[in-house]
């Protein structure tokens, strides 16, 4: 029986246990979109995870959408990330970088003045985003020309190389939650008539080519990807999730990637875990509202190879030690999820057997 505390290999990634820290945007990067010393401390505190997936990181100035998110496209950013990965490694952990190109989900006020907002089709997101000047609408996106798409794919591959050079064990492609890769996959945001739109195979092509390029850049065993078929987050609409994600998984399966990271959001058309198991034989990390008990059951039943926790890792930096010791969990403070300072970021307490911490403390 697979214990949540037993080690596992996912491709070329070695995990000391099966508890993964889910990617979480915390909007605390520096003025040059570089990770700060506080961010290095935040990740170091959470190195007890079998694997940390970093917050979403933009591969280029155009890929940025939100307030104070970090990038991996300048030497300064790479140097600052080295401090993050060195701290995690010294504490015995592993870390991959989540690459997040926001596509149409971006407010002009959050981007460099010369950055563009691009998407598969010129269809605006109705989301309002937080900026330094208050809430602002998303910028109207420009539809990428067919000939430009190879350049965007190159940016993603270059970001994967930069992440490796900055000490990350690998990368995860963010293909959920309504960002650029999912904008290509979904019928509501992709109305293209070229080879990147129309049929399920064509809508899946961008994500397939990005994953192929990342695998060629750093090795397939160091590349994972995150999906959530049919998830409506960020006002996404998809009339064909079953055929599209079937085409995607069939094409990606032979690449031998490290893992598939699945956010479990059931929709009428499919039950996510059963669905991916039909089309994907590689390792699956499951996510979404898990507890120690529900996670252990999914591992014991052989339905997942590893499990990821988001919010519990915000407020329990030593989540694995707490699980091992049956210690109480601290509830996270939503008010400090995004932006701000060290409060709600690096000041959650470490559990100690001598000083029990009450739930909600
Ligand atoms: C503050 C916050 C930021 C998040 N940012 C990201 C992100 O950058 N990339 C991503 O794929 N998911 C992101 N998520 C989703 C989480 O990775 C995870 O899927 C979600 O919290 C559900 O897991 P949980 O029930 O264990 O919290 C974020 C969630 C939270 C709470």
From TrEMBL:
Keywords noted in UniProt: Oxidoreductase
InterPro entries: Aldolase_TIM, OxRdtase_FMN_N, Oye-like
Swiss-Prot/TrEMBL cofactor(s): FMN
Residue ranges of every copy of the NADH:flavin oxidoreductase/NADH oxidase N-terminal domain listed in the record: 4-328
Gene Ontology terms, MF aspect: FMN binding; oxidoreductase activity, acting on the CH-CH group of donors, NAD or NADP as acceptor
Gene3D superfamilies, per database record: Aldolase class I
GO annotation, cellular component aspect: cytosol
Record family assignment: Belongs to the NADH:flavin oxidoreductase/NADH oxidase family.
Protein's UniProt name: N-ethylmaleimide reductase
Source species of the chain: Nitrospirillum amazonense
């Amino acid at each position: 029986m697979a214990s949540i505390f037993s080690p596992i290999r996912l491709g070329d990634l070695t995990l000391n246990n099966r508890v993964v820290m889910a990617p979480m945007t915390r909007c605390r990067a520096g003025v040059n979109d570089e990770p700060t010393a506080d961010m290095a401390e935040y990740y170091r505190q959470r190195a007890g995870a079998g694997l940390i997936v970093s917050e979403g990181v933009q591969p280029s100035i155009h890929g940025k959408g939100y307030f104070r998110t970090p990038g991996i496209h300048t030497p300064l950013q790479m140097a600052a990330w080295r401090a993050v990965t060195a701290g995690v490694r010294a504490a015995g952990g592993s870390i991959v970088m989540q690459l997040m190109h926001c596509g149409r989900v971006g407010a002009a006020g959050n981007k460099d003045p010369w950055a563009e907002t691009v998407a598969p089709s010129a269809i605006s997101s109705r989301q309002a985003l937080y900026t330094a000047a208050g809430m602002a609408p998303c910028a109207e996106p420009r539809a990428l020309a067919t000939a430009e798409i190879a350049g965007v794919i190159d940016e993603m591959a270059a970001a994967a190389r930069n992440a490796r050079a900055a000490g990350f064990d690998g990368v995860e492609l963010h293909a959920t939650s309504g960002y650029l890769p999912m904008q290509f996959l979904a019928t509501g945001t992709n109305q293209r008539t070229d080879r990147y739109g129309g049929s399920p195979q064509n809508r899946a092509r961008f994500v397939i080519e990005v994953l192929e390029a990342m695998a060629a850049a750093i090795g397939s065993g160091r590349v994972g990807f995150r999906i959530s078929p049919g998830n409506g987050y960020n006002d996404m609409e998809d009339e064909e999730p079953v055929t599209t994600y079937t085409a995607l998984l069939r094409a990606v399966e032979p690449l031998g990637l490290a893992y598939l990271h699945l956010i479990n959001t059931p929709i009428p058309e499919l039950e996510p875990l059963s669905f991916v198991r039909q089309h994907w034989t590689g390792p699956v990390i499951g996510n979404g509202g898990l507890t120690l008990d529900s996670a252990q059951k999914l591992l014991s039943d052989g339905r997942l190879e590893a499990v990821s926790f988001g919010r519990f890792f915000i407020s329990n930096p030593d989540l694995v030690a707490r699980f091992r010791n049956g210690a109480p969990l601290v509830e996270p403070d939503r008010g400090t999820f995004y932006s701000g300072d060290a409060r709600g970021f690096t000041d959650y307490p470490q559990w100690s057997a001598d000083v029990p911490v009450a739930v909600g403390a």
